[in-house]
Specification:
Structural class: mainly alpha
CATH topology: Pectate Lyase C-like
Helix content: 10-25%
CATH superfamily: E3 ubiquitin-protein ligase SopA
Largest sheet: none
Number of helices: 4
């Protein structure tokens, strides 16, 4: 359950939230199962936040910092996440259908089982993403500027081995 103090602070707006985050570096925001449906979170620093099973559907989250955030089972469906930073975020089984992820960065992000159906992945950097499959990518919209992991273009055996290694690496980085 989300910490009510963290929800209250987030409702004050991104400037107040970011100032609070800067002065409370030791606090990991707890927004577990919060209902932030249609929230306006543009430019918000949600790095290292626990957003497990949080409803962020149809939210405006342009240039949001989600570096190292826990977004397992989170709903980001239809959200505007242009230029978002998902580096090292855990997005296992996240619902990102129809999200605008144009220009987003996913370096080291764990995308196992996430749903990217209809997502705008144009200009996104997925090159360092872990656990991503070609099927997930092809359910979204990409362009020539979308950077994809090299393991998606290897032989089936090489892909399986690279995927297995990325899962093992993810387990070491994110112990259960």
């Amino acid at each position: 359950m989300a910490d009510p103090k963290h929800i209250q602070m987030l409702k004050r707006g991104h400037e107040a939230w970011n100032q609070w985050r800067a002065s409370h570096l030791d606090v990991r925001p707890d927004l577990v199962t919060a209902n932030l449906y249609r929230g306006i979170l543009n430019g918000t620093d949600l790095s290292q936040a626990d957003l497990t099973a949080t409803n962020l559907r149809d939210s405006s989250m342009r240039a949001v910092n989600l570096h190292g955030a826990m977004l397992v089972y989170a709903t980001l469906r239809g959200s505007d996440l242009r230029s978002a930073n998902f580096a090292r975020a855990k997005l296992i089984r996240a619902d990102m259908r129809w999200a605008n992820l144009k220009g987003a960065v996913f370096g080291g992000a764990d995308l196992r089982g996430s749903d990217l159906g209809g997502a705008d992945l144009r200009d996104a950097d997925l090159s360092g993403a872990l656990g991503l499959t070609l099927r997930q990518v092809l359910r979204g919209f990409i362009n020539a500027n979308t950077q994809l992991p090299s393991y998606l273009f290897q032989s089936a055996w090489q892909r399986r081995e690279a995927y297995r290694r990325s899962i093992e690496k993810s387990k070491r980085r994110w112990p259960e």
